Amino acid sequence: MVEIRVTDEAVDPEGATLIEGMPGVGLVGKIATDHIIESLGMTQFATVRGEGIPPVTVFDGSDRDVHSPIRLYIDDDEELVALRSDVPVHVMDAPLFAERLTEWIVDHDVLPIYLGGLPADRDADEVPAVEGIGVAEGQTNLDDAAVAPPEDGGMISGPCGALLSEAVDQGVDAIGLMVDTDPRFPDPQGSHALIKQGINPVAGVDVATQRLVDEAEEIMEQRQELAKRMQQADQHEASQVSRTYQ
Known about the structure:
Layout: E1 2-6, E2 17-21, H1 28-40, E3 43-50, E4 58-59, E5 66-67, E6 70-74, E7 80-85, H2 94-107, E8 111-119, E9 130-135, H3 138-144, E10 153-157, H4 158-170, E11 174-181, H5 188-203, H6 210-214, H7 216-232, E12 240-244
Parallel strand pairs: 2-7, 2-8, 8-11
Antiparallel strand pairs: 1-3, 3-6, 4-5, 6-7, 9-11, 10-12
Pfam families: PAC2
Region (Disordered): 223-246
Organism: Halolamina salifodinae
């Protein structure tokens, strides 16, 4: 069983947009989501616990607070929700995780934006293009935001794939944003592209991203250990997009 435990009952996420930040290829989704949370000063209002979620505690270097590994945050206007995760969810547990999160999304009329990295060879200073796929009205949102569709077919695995699959099964509006990334390293440049080209126009927000470019080397060093753990883990623990060339 997977449970979403509300820690702040005063929060009302009804009608908000959700940004999903599970660890994946290049950590592009996680870095982007963490950056958005910090930039907007978002506050935690819920935790996600249960099967498939490692029973670990995480802490920041700047204080003594401890946290659950997967948390939900919300901005001051209660229009943007972010799912912050410091651990992967294994493929065997991803369907249950996706089912419970989708139930919460439906109950609160939330539009989810799922983030994925496309393994690719790319120069470190090259800004990649963002591609988008959608379920139901999610396609309209992408058209309105002028996000390009994929150039080629492919497959999405891991939690992101399970979440989009659940959206299809339930007929729930959903969006998937993908960006080329080097799977060997944390990729703040890819996260910068995800926010600037995808999340900002789709979610109707204006999150500055220059810090991801200016402090790319420092961010890469900070996230290198998690990136190594993701490479060593089962490939299906990480959300990953793979191309199928015709």
